[in-house]
Amino acid sequence: MRLRNPSAPMPHPHLQLDHVRLGYRMPTGMHVVVDDLSLALHEGRIGCLLGPSGCGKSTVLRAISGFEPLLAGSIALHGEVVATPRRSLAPEKRRVGVMFQDYALFPHLSVEDNVGFGLRREPAAARAARVKGLLSLVGMASLGGKYPHELSGGQQQRVALARALAPRPELLLLDEPFSSLDVDLRERLAGEIRDILKEAEATAILVTHDQAEAFAMADEIGVMEQGRIVQWGKAYDLYHHPATAFVAGFIGAGVLVPGRPTGNGSIRLEFGDIDAPGPVSTNGDVRVLLRPDDLLADADSPIRARLVHKVFRGPGYLYTLRLPSGSEVLAQMPREDGHRMGDEIGIRLRTGSLPAFPA
Ligand SMILES: Nc1ncnc2c1ncn2[C@@H]1O[C@H](COP(=O)(O)OP(=O)(O)OP(=O)(O)O)[C@@H](O)[C@H]1O
């Protein structure tokens, strides 16, 4: 592991986007799809742009790799500005590698030749050594002679990763890399690919609409909504301290329940008071984020809710509970406890404070 002298100034971010605006020219005029987007990623970090379909994630990746002109702002790689609205360094000069969702392996080339494809100008011995090292890094050392159609989806994905890493890109971009794999494999492979990128000391940006993938792979995540990053942070903070109601709704399961600030630092919910997460205006109702793990079953609790839906989730059950007002909340219950549909269950809150947003 490389250690940094703590008194040395922080180096330039490896990738920096400042107030970037991007759009497409339409017959009706310019259609802006990304606006005022800024981010900074340091060397060796894995960042992620996470957001719903159409929010502009792929457009940002194309701008970083040099295939989308900027309408405003700038992009810098390792402290060097590579794009502004007036000038743009050619994609092949940026040393940015891209790995797409469909792997795009060459079907007529063996695994080894696929991985070595970007190294054709290197001397044969150096090229062979690099290919061997990469195949071993991605756990495919014995499969170099196979052809893509002989491999599983996960294996093809590893070959695609080795091929993208081969020319030692300054930055690796991963565009929805797991979307063609089934859900179980996706999360496992995301974790494995994270380990490989860390081992290779690569700096990478992943784009995805899948939160599990983002959480399994990224060090830091930017949640995008309609062309803007609405929150940038670690998975834990996005989950527990969402900055907006949109982030709260997009990340993890949960329900926004109505609440009313009492004026003395707490918020009144239908089933009791919670501490306000910070200064909350008393003039107006709020919505409070309640995650399934915020509620506990408690037979002695005076707060009663009716069980209207119950799903087995392996480690436990996910209950949908209807409160007397008719609003519904989710509750994660640890194991079978004999509750039946329609039962009235005593519940209580696990935590004293929950995120709140203006109603
Ligand atoms: N070539 C294009 N011409 C015109 N509009 C485009 C073009 N490419 C994308 N768009 C529009 O720009 C917006 C952002 O698209 P983009 O592909 O960046 O989103 P995304 O978040 O990557 O979505 P997805 O997850 O579905 O790939 C969308 O409204 C899309 O319709």
Automatic annotation (TrEMBL):
It comes from the Bacteria. Signal peptide: none annotated. InterPro entries: AAA+_ATPase, ABC_SmlMolc_Importer, ABC_transporter-like_ATP-bd, ABC_transporter-like_CS, ABC_transpr_FbpC, Mo/tungstate-bd_C_term_dom, P-loop_NTPase, Transp-assoc_OB_typ2. Pfam families: ABC_tran, TOBE_2. Keywords: ATP-binding, Cell membrane, Ion transport, Iron, Iron transport, Membrane, Nucleotide-binding, Transport. Residues 15-251 form the ABC transporter domain. CDD domains: ABC_Carb_Solutes_like. GO terms for molecular function: ATP binding. This is ABC transporter ATP-binding protein. The lineage of its organism: Bacteria, Pseudomonadati, Pseudomonadota, Betaproteobacteria, Burkholderiales.
